[in-house]
Write a structure and sequence with these properties.
The chain has about 450 residues and is α/β, with parallel strands linked by helices. It has 17 helices and 20 strands. The protein is globular and about 70 Å long. One of its GO terms (cellular component) is cytoplasm.
Length: about 450
């Protein structure tokens, strides 16, 4: 019996363990941290051996293949040791892909991939297709493959997941944008990070489709050096020859293959230019699998985006509060600021990821009336916007941040939490930060009611 070692016992690791066991492998799960109770119970119930708080190397290296969590860098000793021993290291997506009978619609990009993934899934689900949602969006693809019965899998892929995928093939792959992010995992070289993103096109044939944002300069720069075997379908807002999908005046026009269609997006709740790109990609995928334009239009109107992505969380005395905690880099914040038309009090800060705030300056000067820094070290943000002359304050308390922002705002304004930074200085993760912000808004609302 072949042995598989799984590193990391989160959603993807446990899903991979259960699928591997079902396929007859001898499975061992190892997590250097602590395992959440729900995952511990799943492993115990399946009688899959596991450990936490350590890596027993002789157990791990006895495997013929290792499946690792995307959060584990290739540079850690347990992985480099496996490579030295010529033990293949793969991702859960790669493993699950071997056993799936349906077609994969895969989405990546620095920003917007979760929204696009959820929207694509919603469009297919609303049309009655047998479709599963999986990947970086928080669902195990291996778990969905184990369930079975799906004709399509809509999969959000991070660069970390793509790094350890080799034979996996998407039927429809979507690349939304490429901007600097996670460069510490890629030797601080953009070409390495871009290379990871372009892995989404690997193994495609001319019967498969590659949808990409032609307006994104980094995609076009790196596309020239990457062979893409799939049928290429550029989408964009700018008038350009050869666009397969174009967005103008709330109308998406598609012209590709044997499809010529127009889709009205006026019922969509998504705001901002970035969501026009996300919508083009999702609508393109829906058209490719045969969904009629009128069905797409109806489904657009019933879509609800994920939490922490330009999510309205309350209104206090005419001031709207928007939780965009998922905006952990400068590009995501740019889209948020660009998409909101009302005056903004901006709540920003956290763990800086090597940000260059310069691209935000014009939008901040045009739209922002005050800045509230919510973080342990705000010096870089304060310096970046010092010359704007805006009022800037600092706090390490989310309740105080919400109160300060409300004090700066007037009825009709928007208080926007769009941090441009990771959350780990004051919070467990961006979800914790977003929920804390929403709770602080609810608390404030109750005190002024």
């Amino acid at each position: 019996m072949q042995k598989i070692a799984i590193l990391g016992a989160g959603e993807s690791g446990v899903g991979a363990a259960l699928l591997a066991q079902a396929k007859g492998f001898d499975v061992f799960v190892s997590d250097r941290g602590s395992i959440a109770e729900k995952y511990r119970q799943q492993l115990a119930q399946a009688q899959i051996p596991f450990e936490e708080g350590t890596h027993t190397l002789e157990q791990i290296y006895a495997a013929t293949e290792i499946i690792k969590s995307p959060g584990i860098p290739d540079t850690v000793p347990v992985i480099s040791g496996a490579v030295e021993r010529n033990i293949p290291v793969i991702s859960e997506i790669e493993f699950a892909g071997r056993y799936a009978s349906g077609k994969f619609i895969c989405i990546t990009g620095t920003n917007g991939k979760t929204t696009t993934t959820l929207l694509t899934y919603h469009l297919l689900k609303s049309a009655g297709l047998k479709v599963a949602l999986a990947g970086n969006v928080g669902e195990s693809l291996a778990g969905k493959v184990l369930e079975g019965g799906y004709d399509y899998y809509v999969v959000e892929l991070s660069s970390f997941q793509l790094d350890n995928m080799y034979s996996f093939k998407a039927h429809i792959s979507i690349l939304l944008n490429i901007t600097p992010d996670h460069l510490d995992r890629y030797g601080y070289k953009m070409e390495n990070y871009a290379g990871a993103k372009f892995r989404i096109t690997q193994n495609m044939t001319s019967a498969d489709f590659f949808l990409f944002n032609q307006d994104d300069a980094e995609i076009m720069k790196y596309k020239a050096s990457h062979e893409v075997p799939g049928t290429q379908m550029p989408f964009g807002l700018k008038d350009s020859d050869g666009l397969a999908i174009q967005f103008q005046d709330q109308l998406i026009s598609a012209s590709f293959s044997k499809i010529k269609a127009k889709v009205d997006t006026s019922k969509s709740p998504l705001i901002g230019q970035h969501n026009q790109y996300n919508t083009m990609a999702a609508v393109g995928a829906a058209l490719l699998v045969g969904i009629a334009p009128n069905q797409i239009e109806e489904a657009l109107g019933t879509f609800q985006n994920a939490e922490h992505r330009l999510q309205p969380v309350g209104e206090v005395e005419g001031v709207r509060f928007i939780n965009d905690s998922k905006a952990t880099n400068v590009e995501a914040v740019w889209y948020a600021l660009d998409g909101i038309q009302q005056p903004i009090v901006w709540v920003v800060g956290g763990t800086d990821k090597g940000n260059d705030y310069t691209p935000l300056l014009p939008l901040v000067q045009e739209k922002v009336k005050a800045i509230v820094c919510l973080g342990m070290d705000n010096s870089k943000i304060l310096a970046a916007f010092a010359e704007t002359g805006l009022k800037m304050v600092e706090t390490r308390d989310v309740n105080e941040a919400v109160q300060l922002a409300k004090d700066f705002a007037e009825a009709g304004d928007v208080v926007l939490l769009s941090p441009a930074c990771a959350s780990f200085d004051l919070f467990n993760n961006y979800e914790h930060r977003g929920r804390s912000f929403a709770q602080a808004v609810a608390t404030l609302k109750s005190t002024v009611a």
